[in-house]
């Protein structure tokens, strides 16, 4: 059963559950589905609380989400941002690629296991002197279809944004085109920040 953010579970261990909480929260915020009864299940024992002042966001209680601090540290170090749905989606796709497994299998991993794998990948010695981390090397430039699946775009939308210069590419076209995933993450984070700022400026 998919966990919705309004369930306010007392403990979150699976990465898929954490992903669903962030995904359903962002969906409800965007669709303006938040109402007075949305937080009625929240207690002092819940794994997280939510905040709507200055922009809607989930505030985890690390002791009730094992592995949260390790995951949050990784994301902040690699992206310079807080944990968000965009970051979780990117990590899920990355683990799916390097582990050659479906997204459902990544969802079944615990948050602790995800953090351990990410740190292990980061610590792996470079294959060649001066080589970048795999996240910034082999998996930095992805196919148009991969970007579309990771960020819930259509392939045509990805191509249009790349043509417009919104995404960094490898300079090629057609089947040989590759998109810099970090440029997509940057654009999505900027979009989310703009939405948060707009929400903060809107009279309550």
Question: Secondary-structure blueprint of this entry?
Answer:
Blueprint: H1 15-30, E1 48-51, E2 57-60, H2 68-79, H3 85-99, H4 103-107, H5 111-123, E3 141-142, H6 144-150, H7 155-163, E4 179-180, H8 181-201
Helix pairs in contact: 2-5, 6-7
Task: Note down, in words, how this protein is organized.
The protein is mainly α and 204 residues long. The chain has a domain at 140-204: Arc Repressor Mutant, subunit A, CATH 1.10.10. It is 48% helix and 6% strand. The chain has eight helices and four strands, in the order αββααααβααβα. It has helices at residues 15-30, 68-79, 85-99, 103-107, 111-123, 144-150, 155-163, 181-201; strands spanning 48-51, 57-60, 141-142, 179-180. The strands form two sheets. Strands 1-2 form a two-stranded antiparallel ribbon. A hairpin with a 5-residue loop joins strand 1 (48-51) and strand 2. Helix 2 (68-79) crosses helix 5 and helix 6 (144-150) crosses helix 7 (155-163). The chain is globular and about 55 Å long. The model is unreliable at 126-131 (pLDDT under 50).
């Amino acid at each position: 059963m998919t966990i919705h953010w309004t369930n306010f579970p007392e403990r979150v261990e699976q990465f898929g559950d954490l992903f669903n909480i962030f995904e359903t929260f962002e969906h409800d915020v965007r669709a303006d589905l938040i109402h007075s009864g949305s937080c009625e299940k929240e207690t002092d024992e819940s794994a997280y609380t939510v905040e709507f002042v200055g922009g809607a966001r989930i505030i985890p209680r690390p002791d009730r989400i094992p592995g949260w601090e390790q995951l949050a540290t990784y994301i902040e170090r690699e992206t310079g941002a807080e944990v968000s749905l965009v970051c979780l989606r990117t990590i899920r796709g990355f683990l799916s690629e390097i582990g050659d497994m479906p997204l459902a299998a990544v969802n079944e991993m615990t948050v602790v296991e995800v953090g351990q794998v990410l740190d292990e990948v980061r610590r792996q010695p470079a294959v060649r002197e001066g080589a970048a981390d795999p996240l910034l090397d082999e998996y930095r430039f992805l196919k148009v279809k991969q970007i579309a699946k990771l960020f819930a775009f259509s392939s045509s939308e990805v191509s249009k944004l790349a043509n417009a210069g919104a995404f960094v590419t490898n300079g090629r076209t057609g089947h040989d085109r590759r998109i810099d995933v970090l440029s997509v993450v940057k654009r999505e984070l900027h979009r989310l920040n703009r939405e948060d700022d707009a929400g903060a400026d809107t009279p309550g």
